[in-house]
Amino acid sequence: MNTSQPQNCNTTMIRTHALLNIAKSIRSIKEAKNQGIEYLEPNIDLVAIQRKLDQLESQYYFNHPGYVTNLTDTVESTKTNPYTEECKLLSPAGNKRIWHYNEAAALQFIPTKLAVIGAGIDSIEIATIYQALGSNVDIFITGDEVFPELDKDINKAFQRYVKRLFKIKQQAEITAFNCTDHHVQLSVTSKNKMLKDTDYDAIFITDDTDSQLDLLTHPFMATCFPTVTWLGWTEKQLANCELNYKVINIPWRSLGRANTDVNTNGLTKLIFNTDDNTLIGGGTMGNNADEIFGEICLAIHNKFTADNIAHTVHAHPTLHESILLAAEVYNGTATDVLNEG
Predict the structure, then answer these.
(1) Is 226-331 a CATH 3.50.50.60 domain?
(2) Which of 11, 65, 149, 317 is 20 to 30 A off residue 208, Cα-Cα?
């Protein structure tokens, strides 16, 4: 969820998150076989999904009169993703196979092959939706990280997790669009090597501005699989300031709940100010990570110390225990994992 989106995008975001919930259901069905339960492949009824999305949108208008109601009303003028201007120069205007956020959320059709151009929350969420619905998705990013504003360890863990879902082309540059009525052919270099020209049924060009978010005050949350969250200072930011800090990483494989849920690839990361032991940054990466993120936001907002967190009861078995463990590791009192030093 990109919290920087203006209010006239709220209805589009409702559609997106309804689609993400559908994607989560499809994923749960497919992954049940890892626990010895197998279902038939899901049947995607695009008309029924569209009807449900329209109902949700109408309900939102009823409860929030006065919002913009045209799904094609965009806010691209407020966005500055470097890929956007580059792609505008290369791609023809008005092509139904070249999408921005609103067109992608409209679910006009399900492409067999989808190219996602750009990094950030919108990019990964749209890729997540269409991959679950059956599209083969390639993601092209200018750098090496899909979430450039977040730390390298979170990006590395996330990209390792999703490599079986998407093909991520790093250090990519789009050199040409070749559009027809049936597809868009992309010419791309990645890491200074020319890739084979590829035909796509649709191209999504992200207009995301995640890198402009003030992570010290605005929560970052990508509702994908796995979910990625963050609030407060990152190691990238702290490298350029004089704060004294300590980073604690808790891999979810140490959690009983994560093991029973076959959800061991996640992590919880907390950053404490070592001068006063307050929590100044933190986030989670893993399936259902958003459900425990509120505790981190509350702790940062109220300047909780590691002791405050460690002396708060955390139910067992839950993913919340990863936050407790991180505080105990910081204090050197953890009994479930090895302490440092």
Answers:
(1) no
(2) 65
